Amino acid sequence: MSSQPTPPVPGTATAVQVSSSVFPTKFHHPLNPLTPDEVSAISSTILKSMVEKHGTDQFAVKFVTCMLQPPPKRAVLAHLGIPLAPGAKPEAATPIARRADVDFLDVLRGLAYNVVLELDKGTWSIQKLTLLPEGVQPQITVEELIECEDIVRNDKTVQKLAAEVGA
């Protein structure tokens, strides 16, 4: 590994978002991405579940992804009052459940999980917790990509081969 610390990965936010410390209990548009407060609440729900399962000193979690699980298109169109066909009337809107899809690693045991959570009356709850089969893992993280790049760039063989081709 490189002797220099890996620089932080730049964010994608265009402005600073201050946490309201009040978790949202409803959404304005069914396809709005999860807010930072929702991600925090989701993470807390998963951590509490892991504490109940393993105790406080026996787990370490690394979150890989945390994203909105989009609702069915038909439900979104009904929610927005958009008809399914030109000239038709929109379907009656039905309640849309806000769901999140999370991948995380149990770093101590080398296990990978996928979790589906649902927001109900302001509280996120786990609907489905799936242990991924051995050999299956979530996508590579940005931090892992940067670490791989550092390892490859510092490899003497790679440096020699790159010099030979003029890179």
From TrEMBL:
Its cofactor is Cu cation. GO terms for biological process: amine metabolic process. Residues 29-86 form the Copper amine oxidase N2-terminal domain. The keyword Oxidoreductase applies. Keywords: Copper, Metal-binding, Oxidoreductase, TPQ. It holds the Pfam family Cu_amine_oxidN2. Its EC number is 1.4.3.-. It comes from the Eukaryota. Topaquinone (TPQ) is generated by copper-dependent autoxidation of a specific tyrosyl residue. InterPro entries: Cu_amine_oxidase (IPR000269), Cu_amine_oxidase_N-reg (IPR016182), Cu_amine_oxidase_N2 (IPR015800). The keyword Metal-binding applies. Contains 1 topaquinone per subunit. It is an enzyme of class 1 (oxidoreductase). GO terms for molecular function: copper ion binding; primary methylamine oxidase activity; quinone binding. PANTHER family: COPPER AMINE OXIDASE (PTHR10638), COPPER AMINE OXIDASE 1-RELATED (PTHR10638:SF86). Belongs to the copper/topaquinone oxidase family. This is Amine oxidase. The lineage of its organism: Eukaryota, Fungi, Dikarya, Basidiomycota, Agaricomycotina.
